[in-house]
Write a structure and sequence with these properties.
With 291 residues, the protein is α/β, with parallel strands linked by helices. It contains 11 helices and 8 strands. An 8-stranded mixed β-sheet has the order 3-4-2-5-1-6-7-8, sandwiched between helices. The structure holds adenosine-5'-triphosphate (ATP) and magnesium ion.
Length: 291
């Protein structure tokens, strides 16, 4: 866990536990944002981290991907908290994965873009909600799955996040997208909307080791972002494509497959980057999937 008692003594020093907010973002569509949000969240939860996954995409793929079934009313999303009509805590539901909770998405989130855009403080409403919620000490990490556009929801996520994790498809077009999102992060910092925001990492997805292209794209990213590039790469895997249709994470759908090992390694790498060393509770192989 993020916090803990530093020394076992009479008056232990308690380190403040602050939920770290990570936006999984890339304005380019279909690059593996949601797949990463689901499986990184599940991987961290397996490693004893208390995780809140917030689905900010009206497509609601992260919601169905962790097996959450909407109750039919479709209003158990972050819509009402964003408009100031109720608190965030009311919308948090447990998932069937231990240590993983969720704020689901649904179609009503599509409308929030328009309603929020009318409000002067629209960019910082999510930021304020999450900053207030940090005081509750309920979670170690909050993972935001974002939509593939530079609309209000996506920019709100960037304004609210402590860190950005960019999933990047191993394609040349992916590099163009990377330049754009890095520029947007810079703008968010410069406008003062979120001066502290940092680029936590870049995670290469859909890596195909049989092609030179995948290797070249990874090398190119390594040249420009050596510190941010994850050593772990996520391989292209049919099993990853199948898992959401069963409402399962890759760890449940294909626990010993390459993609499962890779997302487990990505979770380990994420924790190491955050100076946390937590053993997995499930059987996760120690094989490495890196280039
Ligand atoms: N490593 C992978 N190997 C094979 N297929 C993958 C992999 N990662 C993701 N996919 C598939 O690619 C598609 C897009 O992935 P995903 O939904 O995670 O991307 P996204 O960036 O969230 O998309 P959007 O921009 O629409 O939100 C999905 O069908 C998913 O199952
Ligand atoms: Mg998505």
């Amino acid at each position: 866990m993020v916090c803990g008692v530093l020394h076992q003594r009479k008056n232990p020093i308690i380190v403040e536990n602050r939920m770290k907010i990570i936006a999984i973002a890339n304005q380019k569509g279909g690059v593996g944002k949601t797949t990463t949000a689901i499986n990184l969240s599940a991987g961290l939860a397996q490693r004893q981290q208390r995780v809140l996954l917030i689905d900010l995409d009206p497509q609601a793929n992260a919601t169905s991907g962790v097996g959450h079934e909407a109750d039919g009313y479709d209003d158990d999303t972050i819509y009402h908290p964003l408009l100031g009509e109720c608190g965030l805590a009311e919308k948090i539901v447990p998932s069937r994965i231990e240590n993983l909770s969720l704020i689901p998405s649904g179609m009503d989130l599509a409308g929030v873009e328009i309603e929020l855009a009318r409000m002067d403080d629209h960019l910082v409403r999510l930021r304020k909600l999450l900053a207030d919620y940090k005081q509750h000490n309920q979670f170690d990490f909050c993972i935001l799955d974002t939509p593939p556009s530079l609309g209000v929801l996506m920019t709100s996520a960037l304004a609210a996040a402590d860190e950005i994790l960019i999933p990047l498809q191993c394609e040349w077009f992916g590099l163009e997208g990377l330049a754009k999102i890095v520029q947007v992060i810079e703008q968010i910092r410069e406008t003062g909307a979120n001066p502290q925001i940092t680029l936590e990492g870049i995670l290469m997805t859909m890596y195909d080791g049989r092609t030179n292209l995948s290797r070249q794209v990874v090398e190119e990213v390594a040249n420009y972002f050596p510190a941010q590039l994850y050593k772990t790469v996520i391989p292209r895997s049919i099993r990853i494509g199948e898992a959401p249709s069963h409402g399962k994470t890759i760890f449940e759908h294909d626990p010993s497959g390459n993609a499962s090992i890779a997302y487990g390694n990505a979770a380990d790498e994420f924790l190491t980057r955050h100076n946390i060393f937590a053993p997995p509770s499930g059987a996760v192989s120690t094989n490495t999937t890196s280039v």
